[in-house]
Amino acid sequence: MRPLTSQDPRAVGPYRTLARLGAGGMGVVYLARSAGGALAAVKVIRAEHAADPGFRARFRREAEAAGRITGPWVVPVLGADTEAREPWLATAFVPGPSLGEVVGDRGALPAETVRALGARLADALVTVHEGGLIHRDVKPGNVLLALDGPRLIDFGIARHEGATALTATDAVIGTPGYLAPEQASAGAAVGPACDVFSLGCVLVYAATGRRPFGDGSPAGVLFRTIHEEPDLDGVPSALAPLVTACLAKDPAARPTAGEVRDALAGGGADPREGSVGEARDAPAGGGGGRDSREALAGGGHGEGPREAAVDG
Q1: What average pLDDT does the structure give for the chain?
Q2: CA–CA separation, 33 vs 162, rounded Å?
Q3: Is 92 helix (H, G, I), strand (E, B) or coil?
Q4: Do the Cβ atoms of 115 and 264 come closer than 8 Å?
Q5: Do 109 and 206 touch, CB atoms closer than 8 A?
């Protein structure tokens, strides 16, 4: 979170801006307050992108669809103005660190925490997919860990199924290391299965502290994602078969988000019972149980997630 600059608006629609949560190629995300006092994260799209009729059409359709999506593990859309010179979309503000921040600071999570986390994120994806959207950027930076459980954020690059005409066919949309092989292949059809692949990558990261296709240059990571098998060393044996299925190269071979949710819940971590915080008391990544719990449950709304939210 950073102070507003002299170039930042002091108001966006009915929201009074308070600080910057992040910035990227697409625009800026602000911490803002409504007239009623509620905090919100307001994403403002840069005018140069909004000047593209195709981009604005996609943003309009997705804002409308995202506004209809509700669920315990997704962040609700509070309002939007898709016709403004710089279109904006407001979502509820979630106070909590990102999964990426927590694992980066404290190390890998206990197996049961990963199971509960995965069940809830899969449940969020079921909600997104039933709403006719594909998220396309499921990654640790887009998972916020609130006291009562995780929230999947950033539908800024989500899209309707079948809305390929609104997206350039040669554009790679997503984050290398978490995007599916078909997302990195020009002209390939992209469907809900790409989110399941990304979820598998997130679960590997949560369980091991490492990305399944390694680090390095984006091109190198994309190459390994398409042509090589993931590194699952350290993934708990109880989770490995499901994670392996999620990371199948063939989208048709992957389970659906609903099947992932049911498999994880059936393994003893019901996504509707308890909270991820309750599982954090177990030691993880070499850190003490209480430290792990505090790292996951405490902290402010990190800068990383909101930077990710505008880079798509």
Answers
A1: 83
A2: 36
A3: strand
A4: yes
A5: yes
The identity of residue 214, as a single letter, is G
| CATH architecture entry for 99-311 | Orthogonal Bundle (1.10)
Task: Summarize pLDDT for 48-93 with one digit per residue, the tens.
Answer: 888 999 888 888 888 888 888 999 999 999 999 999 999 999 999 9
If phi > 0 it is left, if psi is from -120 to 50 it is alpha, else beta; for residue 174 that is left
CATH topology of domain 11-92: Phosphorylase Kinase; domain 1 (3.30.200)
Delimit the domains of the chain by residue range: 11-92, 99-311
Amino acid identity, position 248: A
Distance between CA atoms of residues 101 and 11, nearest Å: 29
For 90, phi then psi, to 5°, come to -110, 135
Q: Which of 310, 266, 308, 295 is nearest to 103 (CA)?
A: 295
* 217-232 burial: b if 16+ Cβ within 10 Å, else e: eeeebbebbeeeebeb
- Per the listing, tokens 């898709």 go with 82
- Residue positions counted in the chain: 312
Contact 192, 256 (CB under 8 A): yes
The pTM of this model reads 0.80
Give me 86's structure tokens: 């710089």
In whole angstroms, give the CA distance from residue 308 to residue 310: 5
Chain position carrying tokens 């992209």? 190
As a whole number of angstroms, the distance between CA 168 and CA 159 comes to 12
For residue 16, give the DSSP letter: E
For the annotated catalytic residues, the residue numbers are: 137
Instruction: Count other C-beta atoms under 10 Å from residue 115's C-beta.
Output: 27
pLDDT tens across 231-268, in order?
A: 999 999 999 999 999 999 999 999 999 999 999 998 64
